[in-house]
Design brief:
Blueprint: H1 23-30, H2 42-50
Protein name: Transposase
Organism: Novosphingobium organovorum
């Protein structure tokens, strides 16, 4: 057996945030996808998210 240790600049998988596995989990966490050119203000979007 060898004592080979690989070194990488990438952090270990256990400390990286996990991506959502599917669209339904993303939807539950963040709500529906919003268009980038939305006319709504930040306040209107926050009100929609919390109420």
């Amino acid at each position: 057996m060898s004592n080979y240790v690989s070194h990488s600049s990438r952090p270990h998988e256990s400390i990286l945030p996990r991506a959502h596995r599917d669209a339904s989990q993303r939807y539950l966490a963040y709500g529906p996808i919003q268009p980038m050119d939305s006319d709504r203000s930040l306040l209107e979007r926050l009100i929609d998210r919390f109420f």
